[in-house]
Amino acid sequence: MAVFVRDFLPAFIQVLDRSGGVIIVSCAIKMLLGVESTIQSGDLNLIVPYGRFETMNDFILRILSFESIPGVVHPALSPLINQYHVYLHQGCIVTLRGVKKDKDVLHVILSGASTSDTIFMTGGGLTSFFPDLTVRGLTVLTHVGGLVRVDAGEKLGSVVGGSSSRFIVEKDTSIGTLV
Domain of life here (predicted)? Predict the structure, then answer.
């Protein structure tokens, strides 16, 4: 995570806590799997509750010196997201999502494309709903996973096509590899 926040890790954790934000997907997965993990953390994905977006947005722009770039929230998550920005700094990408007023951060996490995406990290800890599968490099598509068109180069969370996939992706739990 140091590549994203550089010398500002203590300040970042403080802002993450103050905003009620969580870190999801690759950075959280990498923390679960450890420093020896082959998971590439090419982007830092953040979610904040409704009304807390500006706190994290200001920190990313003013303190971390990222610039805002165009980005569109994936249609599978758009019913849950109120605000969305993508930021870039020296090749590092940060995405920030603010949930809708009647939604919770957990709604977004539980709408992940696969079981390996149901993981999040705060300044004080990490939670994975399917840690055994994730540690074994296995993931099962959720109802949202079927909406990702990997044949068209689309990506959502851990669901990607071809050799860039980090996990063995299963479409249901009846497959023998999950045993």
Answer: Eukaryota
Residues 118, 157: Cα–Cα separation, whole Å: 10
139-149 pLDDT, tens digit per residue, is 777 766 665 65
131/33 Cα distance (integer angstroms): 9
* CATH number for the domain harbouring residue 114: 3.30.460.10
**100 closest CA partner among 112, 82, 84, 88:** 82
Averaged confidence pLDDT in the chain: 81
Q: What are the angstrom distances between the C-alpha of 96 and each of 149, 151, 153?
A: 23, 26, 22
Give pTM, 2 decimals: 0.81
* Identity of the residue numbered 87: Y
